[in-house]
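Lecture notes, unit on protein representations.

Consider one protein chain, 260 amino acids long.
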Amino acid sequence: MGKSVLIEIEKNIAIITLNRPERYNAVNQDLVDGINQCLSIVEKDENVRAIVLTGNGKGFCAGADMSVFGGEVTAEQRRDYIIEQYQPLMKRFFSMNKPIIGAINGTAAGVGAAFALACDLRVMSKESALLYAFVNIGLGPDGGASWLLARQVGYSKAFEIAISGKKVYGEDCFKLGLTNRIVEKEDVLNDAKKWAHELSVRPTLAIGIAKADMMYSMDNDLNDTIAFEAEKQVSAFNSYDLNEGVTAFIEKRPAKFLGK
């Protein structure tokens, strides 16, 4: 995966780090490929039960690297690139059956903001920010940024954020539900890792089911969602962790979940 994205396994968690600090982790092909490869690794590794995504240096991600597209690239080719590269990458975030925590150091801008919001949970500081910078250079949102923001804060607020082109700092993100936690700047990564370790000893299969249920419910009605939940529950009914959880409850002891 080269050096544009790094991965570190720490007990039962994986830390994925965007690693182009000299470009504020701006998104180029190496970075897209690197994230895809890292997610493939953690998806297949049964020992990894939670994931942290962060950025190296002063910022989480500056958005698309403008140097990627030369003057000879047509508008249609740029459109195709967004569909061919960002669409499958975002699908990997959403279909990952393990929780992803975004440790949002500094600013997440443009498609970097979409990456941040594609994480299941987020940790930010007061100095951290989300920036829908697209409008500042004459673009609309892409990479799923509009879908993610509108479902977090509703249409009107999402539209306001998208057309203002201004940073939404950590405390306002917390008030809007765009981040789960606010910590000191120097604690963002460590807090995210601590949270990931806590989740890594929970029933990973059940967490994955809950994620799938929530994602499905956003675009389907109550009846269809109940049916979907029931179908997903089949794998939980057959799991080691359900048996362990029930047994531990009866025996009045802490459960020892294996994520299976």
